Amino acid sequence: MKYTSCIHLEHGITFFSNSLQICCISSHPGGGNILQIANYRGELIDWDKIFESRALMRKDLKKGIIPQKCSGCYYLKENDWSSDNYIDEVLIGHFTHCNCNCIYCYTDKDKKFFNSNKTYNIYPVIKDMVDKKILSKNATITFGGGEPTILNEFEDLVNLLLDYDVYNIRIHSDGIKYSPAIEKGLRLGKITLITSVDSSSKQIYEKIKHVPCFDKVWENLRNYAKSKNGLIRTKYVLIPGVNDNLREVKNWMKMTYDSGIRHIAFDIEDNWFKKNRNNIPNYIYVIFDFVYKSYTQYNIESCELYERASNLKIDRDNKLQYSSGT
Ligand code: SF4
Ligand code: SF4
Question: Smallest Cα–Cα separation from 314: which of 81, 68, 8, 27?
């Protein structure tokens, strides 16, 4: 039966440092961040209970009752969803420590706290999901935190997933620490690495990141790119007032190509976007359009829009549709 739902409501799980959630999406009117277990600290999961709660939710969804927190979320779509019990959308974000200091990061509020915030070891939980075959081999596993490569269990965890033959592992890494497991996963074509460089000059990089690692990051990216099979994206988070100039953006795409990388990602800084969503200045559209329409001129093969940039595009498309009366 077709009904409106989303991949996360159906088969998703998100690990945070003190909670288990259904998803981590939050910039739509309903606010998202739907809780599955509060005060979660890495205990093995009672999957029967989780799947019971999903079955109850599914009954409501089939009646057209959408959770209030999902209201307005662009992930919602009508589909013939499978009611089988498995997980195929995982976010691993249970850690908050990082070797970088981005000014737009949620950890910027209290770096000392977030860098010392004790996390749990997620390896046994994922191993349990693998052993019980709760985790689908078709799963998308996304790492985002914090910086995953400095997690104690990171190399073992990635190797576990590679051995299990999961082939869609998305890793958000700042690129400062080189990871042999990422290199292996790229070689096997099972990893997508996304590194936010947000700049193409040392000066702007250091203004945003507050670490002297510009050269190191690009060197690591060039080395990862030698693996050929995996997909690497350099990402640009547009921060109005900081890196919002076209020259920086154009050089970023050129540097990406020159480093052997053929894919990019684009986003807009979260806090700024939430404040300005209904009043976006024209020059932001100019930069957005340049990136989204001109990346092929730089021999870049694809551009992934992240949550805020997608919302910017959707809002404008809707406005244009509305004003043209279609
Ligand atoms: S509809 Fe959006 S907010 Fe709701 S679970 Fe899906 S992704 Fe999360
Ligand atoms: S690299 Fe990611 S986790 Fe680290 S400070 Fe930057 S945004 Fe935050």
Answer: 27
The predicted-structure confidence for 161-182, as pLDDT tens digits, reads as follows: 999 999 999 999 999 999 999 9
Q: Give the pTM.
A: 0.90
Q: Which ligand is nearest to the CA of 28?
A: 1
Q: Which long-range contacts (CB under 8 A, 24 or more apart) does 131-134 make?
A: 132/47, 133/86, 134/47, 134/85, 134/86, 134/87
* CA–CA distances in Å: residue 323 to residues 135, 175, 268, 315: 45, 43, 25, 12
* Atom 2 of ligand 2: nearest residue by CA position: 146
Please say if the pLDDT value at position 326 is more than 60: no
pLDDT tens for each residue of 219-239: 999 999 998 778 999 999 999
For the domain made up of 3-232, the CATH class stated in words is alpha beta
Binding pocket residue ranges, ligand 1, CB within 6 Å: 6, 8-9, 22-23, 25, 32, 34, 69-70, 73, 75-76
Q: Which ligand 2 atom is the nearest neighbour of the CA of 172?
A: 2
User: What ranges do the domains of the chain cover?
Assistant: 3-232, 233-326
